[in-house]
């Protein structure tokens, strides 16, 4: 096709979605595939949240709403920020969109001019750089490798900021590594940001509630109140509330930025699904007891996967304190050849051969900007994880 825009030629399709789709296709074709690609909980949406969605349908709350969210949901979001993060926001500072992705996209579209830089620590979630490119900006990648626990150091942050830096994107606990920043680690970063008043902070807190081993979540505007006026605090109900398909993300920040995001949404998708908004009200206001129960299961699965991967010579898998991902290094396997004859030249070749030869779908590290690694989402059953890790062990033992 020759009629695509110049902008589109700069971006690629989402690799996480590509891997998930490929695994589903192979499964449908009868292959024995274990998908560890998709970052979504295997648990169903809790019953009280589902019931709120059904009620909304039955009571006819199925029409257009205010473009960026019903007042009831905005009130629930303000209460959530106060309760969980000690942050005060008014409803006029809140935006609701069709998933966390649309929130980030709206914010970038609303603020970037050609040449504006967006600073992104790597490994990063796959969509950040491509969204920046779609919005006409330039992603600038700052390394946060395994040697610093996949966390950006203040020195690396300082070194990557330029006069053109418009945003710093922060994500903790991280997709794809699961690494969560402690208060002190985050404070060291916000101290740097205080010295650069032209930089806005976009914090993606989607994995806030998925924390293990007593890890205490914190967010930039909470750690450094002086950054409140230039921080967009983004979150959503997808992961903690097992509501990925309902597509509800939200953010709070400066009122003029929220208004600009609303303008974009008013000319693109209009309001997020009305029924989903009512379900999200229940998610945020209702019982949160199931989150602790889910986290007990996630922590057990994490330990299982970390242990089995570290039994493999050539794999180094750190134990993360959040999200539901691990991001092992396969530096010790590069250059080898698989039993099926595939040369493991890089992490993409590893993931491809693993899928072809064992049916285990993972996402290769290059997609997240840091190699040689791969991402496993352990938000799936213990049995599937055990079987998948056994297959990975066998595959790696077969490398020569
Ligand atoms: N955020 C999830 C993931 O990383 C969902 C897929 C996507 O939107 O990228 O797998």
UniProtKB/TrEMBL annotation:
UniProt name for this protein: aspartate transaminase
Cited SUPFAM superfamilies: PLP-dependent transferases (SSF53383)
InterPro entries membership: Aminotransferase_I/II_large (IPR004839), AspAT/PAT-like (IPR050596), PyrdxlP-dep_Trfase (IPR015424), PyrdxlP-dep_Trfase_major (IPR015421), PyrdxlP-dep_Trfase_small (IPR015422)
Record PANTHER family: ASPARTATE AMINOTRANSFERASE
Gene3D superfamilies noted in UniProt: Aspartate Aminotransferase, domain 1, Type I PLP-dependent aspartate aminotransferase-like (Major domain)
Cofactor dependency: pyridoxal 5'-phosphate
Residue ranges that the Swiss-Prot or TrEMBL entry lists as coiled coil: none
The family this protein is said to belong to: Belongs to the class-I pyridoxal-phosphate-dependent aminotransferase family.
EC category name: transferase
EC annotation from Swiss-Prot or TrEMBL: 2.6.1.1
GO molecular function terms listed in the Swiss-Prot or TrEMBL record: L-aspartate:2-oxoglutarate aminotransferase activity; pyridoxal phosphate binding
